[in-house]
Amino acid sequence: MNPLQGLRNNFRRDRAGDSVAVEMRSVEAGTMHGHRKPILYLENITVSFDGFKALNNLSLYIDEGELRCIIGPNGAGKTTMMDVITGKTRPDSGTAFFGQSMDLTRMSEYEIAGCGIGRKFQKPTVFPQHTVFENLELAMHADKRVWPSLTARLSGEQRDRIDAVLHTVMLADQRSLRAAQLSHGQKQWLEIGMLLMQKPRVLLVDEPIAGMTHQETERTAELLTGLAGEHSVVVVEHDMEFVRSIARKVTVLHEGSVLAEGKMDEVQRDPKVVEVYLGS
Fold this sequence. Notes:
six-stranded mixed beta sheet, Rossmann fold, single chain, four-stranded antiparallel beta sheet, alpha/beta, disordered N terminus, 11 helices
């Protein structure tokens, strides 16, 4: 009997119900990932829209602190995958867990955001008439019932946190500018900063460099790679040059399933990937 099978049998004897599934998921994922600790689990996820399978038995594991790039042709299921993780879409079947115990399929979008998963959409969503500093203040992770207005007094610790995020997203010199005055790339960084104010453990970032200048693209690469480690960062992107510049591990989706996964060089050489995506 192999060690993993022995653990399975022990768990079956000693425990029952959902707790067994959580424990087994930890053991199996830990074995697959060489003792690294996965923070996000999607297992056998299927989502159908009017008979079309947007996700087809998708399994994906994201490790704590890793930077993962997700690529694939249009219609591969990338957006639906993020919708499942954030609670916008409920899967027809399969399981989605955050950490060891949070079943994302049973949580609301608000609950998922509150527990530490932040999502940045392709089009930046900021408060254009407020300053950069005020945007971060509004996004701060706090009980909004005690924040009746922007005139609420900030503590020194809160100001320090805003200052730290301003430097992280490269907007310290723009703190007093209205968000409407920022360039497109700066608005993207501001929205990432607003997510960071909520202290997420996982960041989902959708096509972060769309519409950016070359310089903004380079600085965005620095920002995202710098966030990995403290956060798990999942980047969905079509620009292969950008993906190569930041990728540590790449997952290729096709027709709602994982087609290939590994280092960028490995993925680029995979005949299946060349045929359905890179070679098109």
